[in-house]
Every structure is written in structure tokens, then in C-alpha cells.
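sry for the spam today, last one i promise. C-alpha cells for design, 272 residues
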């Protein structure tokens, strides 16, 4: 969980129910910080490996959208990518050029310039068992041992890391830099369902080098990458990734929202 002056970010894994805390979070924002209006909402996830195993309302995206709409009114729901590897997004942002987007621009008479914002998310599956073994109590005594052995501490230099190694296996970490950038990683290492999620808002004109470090650290067979950026951020063009050695791009989609650009891509490893 990351809390800043204007934003609240929650990243969860497993069979958690993050949307069930919305009422409490909105009340806390008003009571403790005086925030009575929600400027925007971004709720996203990839398709679950076992949707039926999730607790309501997270057993299907329609139920999640219904709950979000009950708090925020008429939001927008989007699905990107093929069915088994799709990525879901709920936001209050309309697509650029639509009537809703024009109305939003007319209603925003504050004259404020949006602060630069960019986020990269890398969702990896079918990972190298040798790497996944690092994130077990049988091979790492502490979370710090796993962080160093996997090279997580070198992905984005300068991060202050809070990490946790579960028993008998599993790992998560949050990292924060002095400039306010964050990094968060969640790992499910079991071979039958290995999965790693990486997310950061680190500022970069291109994400090729960061992506290469993440892929080298975890060695996935398949991954989804999404890049969200405002036009005024350094990452406005970062979603246009170069060709990746050893991977084929199975799908790629882009959207322009009112004030944001979104890039989605699915990569699969070439057969060895």
C-alpha cells in the first residue's frame, strides 16, 4: 500500500477482496485528509488462472464493475488482449475524442495542468523453476536473502525495500525511493501456477532497459506489459517497446484516454 498527498495505491494478490474496502477507504480519506471528491479511479488486473476460486465480487469482471459503479457512478470498463491473457481496466476516464471526453474537458475549468504520471506493470507467468526456488524457505532463510539472490535489489537502484518471505513459499516487496517513486513485486513460485507481478511509477523516457532487467531476473515464458502515461510525462512514448530477444509479440493494443495513453502487449517466448 502506498499513500501520498493525492493518491492511494493498493496492490494485492491471492484470494483477497480489495474492492470490499472501498467504503472504509473513502471515509478515511475524508475524515483524515479532508478529501471529499474522487478525481479518478484505476482498477486493473489480468485474467485469473482460476476465476471460480476467487471470492465475490472478484469471481468475474462484471461483478467488479457493478460494485465500482455503485460508488463512482457511470465508470468505463475496458478489456484488452486475448481471452486467456486479457487485462481488465475500470476507470473514470473516457476515450479521447468521444462526447464524454469533450464534456469532461468543458467541465474541468480549474485550469490546472495534470502532474506528470506514468506506470509500468509487468505480469509474468510460467517462470524458470530455478528462479522460483529462491522464493521458498527451503532455499532462502530470510526475505533479504531472496531479494539479493534474485537481483530484485538491483532492478531500480536506490529503493528502500520492505520485503517478506512467506512460509513455506511466496514473496512480496514494496520499495520507495527518495523522489517518491515506488516499486512493488508479488511472487507465487509454485511450478503449477508460477506468477510474478512487477509495478513501478519510476520516471523513464523508455522502459526497454528496466524491462530487460526484470525479464533477466525472473525468466518468464510469457508476460503482459502495460504502460499508462500522461502526455506530459517522460514516459509518454515509453509504451512503444522495441523487439525483445527470445520473445514474440502475440498481441498489442493502445488506447488514448482523456489525459492518458495506455499501451498493452502480450509476449510469448520463442520455442527452444
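last one done:
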Amino acid at each position: 500500500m502506498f499513500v501520498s498527498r493525492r493518491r492511494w495505491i493498493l496492490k494485492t494478490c491471492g484470494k483477497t477482496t480489495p474492492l470490499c474496502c472501498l467504503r472504509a477507504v473513502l471515509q478515511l480519506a475524508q475524515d483524515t485528509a479532508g478529501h471529499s471528491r474522487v478525481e479518478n479511479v484505476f482498477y486493473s488486473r489480468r485474467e485469473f488462472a482460476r476465476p471460480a476460486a476467487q471470492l465475490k465480487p472478484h469471481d468475474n469482471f462484471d461483478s467488479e464493475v457493478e460494485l465500482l459503479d455503485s460508488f463512482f457512478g457511470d465508470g468505463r470498463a475496458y478489456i484488452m488482449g486475448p481471452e486467456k491473457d486479457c487485462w481488465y481496466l475500470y476507470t473514470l476516464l473516457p476515450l479521447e475524442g468521444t462526447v464524454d471526453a469533450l464534456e469532461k474537458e468543458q467541465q474541468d475549468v480549474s485550469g490546472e495542468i495534470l502532474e506528470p504520471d506514468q506506470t509500468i506493470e509487468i505480469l509474468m507467468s510460467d517462470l524458470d523453476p530455478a528462479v522460483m526456488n529462491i522464493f521458498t524457505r527451503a532455499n532462502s532463510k530470510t526475505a533479504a536473502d531472496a531479494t539479493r539472490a534474485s537481483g530484485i535489489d538491483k532492478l531500480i537502484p536506490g529503493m528502500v525495500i520492505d520485503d517478506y518471505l512467506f512460509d513455506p513459499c511466496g514473496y512480496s516487496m514494496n520499495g520507495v525511493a527518495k523522489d517518491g517513486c515506488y516499486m512493488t513485486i508479488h511472487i507465487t513460485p509454485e511450478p503449477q501456477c508460477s506468477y510474478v507481478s512487477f509495478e513501478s511509477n519510476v520516471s523513464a523516457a523508455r522502459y526497454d532497459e528496466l524491462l530487460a532487467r526484470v525479464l533477466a531476473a525472473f525468466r518468464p515464458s510469457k508476460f503482459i506489459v502495460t504502460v499508462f502515461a500522461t502526455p506530459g510525462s517522460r514516459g509518454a512514448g515509453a509504451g512503444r517497446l522495441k523487439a525483445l530477444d527470445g520473445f514474440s509479440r502475440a498481441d498489442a493494443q493502445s488506447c488514448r484516454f482523456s489525459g492518458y495513453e495506455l499501451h498493452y502487449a502480450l509476449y510469448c517466448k520463442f520455442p527452444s
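The radius of gyration is 19 Å. ok im logging off now
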